[in-house]
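Design a sequence for this backbone.
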């Protein structure tokens, strides 16, 4: 689903996706996006930040409460606070306007790869936290955690290297499939969302520890 109020952008992105073999739903405002997503849930959403009806931030946070689908935010705003707000609302990635279609297509392909299941990997146990890569599920005690595909891959990557410092660049490569130096805010905001779900006290994290200036380390038995 492409949610964009600029007709030329919406149609050009839709055409490129259709030519690439995707089934595309084009929507021009936030209210319609939420209605359409309820009636026919998409596998991925490309979502403009500035929309009539309901804002992109509102749409993103509402969708995130209901679904773990990948969301790529489109924004003409380059201010750090606006980008962070989009990531905090649940977006997995973002692209700033103007953008090259091939860049957006690459982000979409990477997000869809992240959302696919990986089979054959054994569960990872860290105390009361159990991560099951084969089913994209994680439990903390008896409770199943509600994680997006990005959050799950981030947790699984850190867990597979527990006790080791993993740099932001490594996480961008492994989790976001970036082949170049990307925006570390993607990592930091995803870590923040992940901590809110796996830490007993996200303000005082003891499981996912920040190694200042380098990256993150997952602690656990």
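Sequence:
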């Amino acid at each position: 689903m492409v949610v964009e109020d600029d007709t030329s952008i919406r149609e050009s992105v839709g055409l490129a996706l259709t030519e690439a073999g995707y089934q595309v739903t084009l929507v021009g405002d936030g209210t319609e996006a939420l209605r359409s997503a309820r009636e026919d849930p998409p596998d991925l959403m490309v979502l403009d930040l500035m929309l009539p009806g309901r804002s992109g931030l509102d749409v993103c946070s509402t969708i995130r409460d209901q679904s773990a689908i990948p969301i790529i935010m489109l924004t003409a705003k380059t201010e750090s606070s606006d980008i962070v707000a989009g990531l905090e609302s649940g977006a997995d990635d973002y692209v700033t306007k103007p953008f090259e279609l091939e860049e957006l297509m690459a982000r979409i392909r990477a997000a869809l790869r992240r959302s696919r299941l990986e089979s054959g990997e054994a569960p990872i146990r860290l105390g009361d936290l159990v991560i099951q890569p084969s089913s994209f599920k994680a439990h903390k005690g008896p409770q199943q955690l509600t994680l997006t595909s990005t959050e799950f891959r981030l947790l699984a990557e850190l867990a597979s290297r527990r006790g080791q410092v993993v740099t932001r660049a490594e996480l961008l490569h492994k989790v976001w499939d970036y082949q170049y130096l990307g925006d570390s805010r993607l990592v930091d905001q995803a870590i923040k969302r992940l901590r809110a779900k796996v830490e007993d006290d996200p303000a005082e994290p003891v499981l996912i520890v920040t190694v200042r200036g380098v990256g993150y380390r997952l602690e656990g038995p």
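Residues 136 and 152 are 7 Å apart (CA to CA).
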